[in-house]
Amino acid sequence: MPGDVTTAQMEKLQPDYFKAFLKRGIELQLIDSKLLDFNLDKITQAFKLERNLQFTYLGLQTLYDRYFLHSEGSRFELPQAFFMRVAMGLALNEKRKEEKAIEFYHVLSTFDL
Questions:
Q1: Phi-psi bin for 111: left (phi > 0), alpha (psi -120 to 50), beta?
Q2: 85, 35 in Cβ contact below 8 A?
Q3: pTM (2 decimals)?
């Protein structure tokens, strides 16, 4: 089907998407600009897109309805970007913030709470 993207293709696109996502969120004043202080190349290498398959319909719908960033009625945040954004926010004041953000991301994205 035209427009369908495989997981392998998404893995290649994820680093550029995540950087553009952060910049757009900052531009809309939805995200703290301090998130750009992270080493984004290191951060984007930690994404595990296969974890998107862990969601039930209701779980994903809840994130979509309540938590994903949006502008003018259009959502522009994906599940793993959501988990990493939250993880980065939690790690903002850590000494080794990239490592802590990745650690937090793994806990959040595996539902290991």
A1: left
A2: yes
A3: 0.91
